[in-house]
Amino acid sequence: MASTPQAAVQAHLDAINAKSSEQLATTVAFPFLHMQPDGEKVWFPSAADLPDMAGAPFKRTEILESEILATSGDLVVYSLVFQRYGEDDAPLLRVQGLWGVHQGQGEWLVDW
Fold it and tell me: What domains are defined for the chain?
């Protein structure tokens, strides 16, 4: 359970790096929106709809930059730059994205 917005971001990143769909499901609010690097929007209505993370085509993801763009009570919007690395630990993809994190029922979760 993430008690701060930053803890929610870290828990989500940890789940991505663990390649665990079960762990990922504990870090997001449903329905969950994921935008692919090419801009495609993918909605996941429930935990059962999340992809199998074990087959993810990268070894790990690292956040290089993080900035809070906006806050409004129980919502925080982050601008993130992150780097994905391949199995040989060579950089694969560098992406800038927005993550929306909100507080509900006493914990912070990633919405998008």
Answer: 5-110 (3.10.450.50)
Task: Give 38-71 pLDDT, tens digit per residue.
Answer: 889 999 999 999 988 888 889 999 999 999 999 9
CA distances from 53 to 32, 46, 57, 63 (A): 15, 15, 9, 18
Say whether pTM exceeds 0.90: yes
Contacts of 68 (CB under 8 A, 6+ apart): 5, 76, 77, 78
Distance CA 45, CA 85 (A): 28
Structure tokens at 107: 């914990």
CA distance 50 to 65: 26
Does residue 11 sit in helix, strand or coil? helix
Is residue 11 packed enough to be buried (19+ CB in 10 Å), middle (13-18) or exposed (0-12)? buried
Residue corresponding to tokens 């992809």: 51
